[in-house]
Every structure is written in structure tokens, then in C-alpha cells.
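FAQ: What does the model actually see?

It sees only this:
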Amino acid sequence: MAEREHLTHPFGPLYDERSRVLILGSFPSPKSREQAFFYGHPRNRFWGVIAAVLGEDAPSSVEQKRAFCARNRIALWDVLSEVEIAGASDASIKNPVANDLSPILAAAPIEAIFCTGSTSGRYYRKLIEPVLGVPATVLPSTSPANAAMTFERLVDAYQPIADVLLRK
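And it is asked to produce this:
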């Protein structure tokens, strides 16, 4: 196992004044930190899943992903701003520090918050929900480490995002 290191989140949130859904990961993986963008591991299924639930083709470049989120009124951020972590292992996280979500919530008409994975959901409920008083829906992780979830099952699980974004 890789040695645990202290890291600070290396890039900011993605949102604008039209964002209606906030999707939160736990902390960026090494590949995401390398790209300075969310869900950057090539085998992470997030972009394919979210595109499928919204009836679009999956974006591939960071620019396409930014445009996809803007077009679909999706905000992205992570629950944690600082961690001690070994590699990409969420299970190894120690001494987590929460991100401040209030700037996003003040700037955008967020209707629902979703956490991608149990780690994100656990830290949201422990560190953020008591402060904000806003519950989040915890969805299964799209990480390649969550091999038990098929792509089809993930698409079904992520349908609540489409339910919010596609309602009139």
C-alpha cells in the first residue's frame, strides 16, 4: 500500500448561477489531480453514467465535460478539502477537513445534492450536513474499485439526478 500523504484539494468547484444539482465526490484521485478535474481516472464510469441518464453522449475532454455540466446545470465539487490519504484509497483517509459548500449554495439554485459513493456520503453526513442542514442522496461509487456495480445498475441508481434535471 502507498504511504499516506497530506493533501489539499488542488482545484476549485465547477458551478454557475444556473446549476440545479450538486454532485459531490470524496476527494480527487491521483488521475483527477493530474488533470485538475473531476472523475479523471479513465476507468471511472461517472461520465458515461451521467451522460446515459441524461440521454447524451459521454464527454471525453475536460472542455467537453465542463460544457456538459454547464448545459445540464450540474455543479461538481468534493466533500473534503484536505486529507491524509494513501494513493487513491478512500478507505485510507485520515484527518479529513470539509469543503465549504456555502458559496455554491448562495450562487446557484441547487435543488438536490448527491454524493458519489459511501465515503463521500459518510463525510458529508458527518461534517457538512450538520452545518448546512441540507440532506444529500448517496449514490453508488462509479470508481473502477466498485466492480460489483455494473454500468446498467449504476445508470439505474443515478436516475434521481435526471429526475431533478429533466423535470419541468
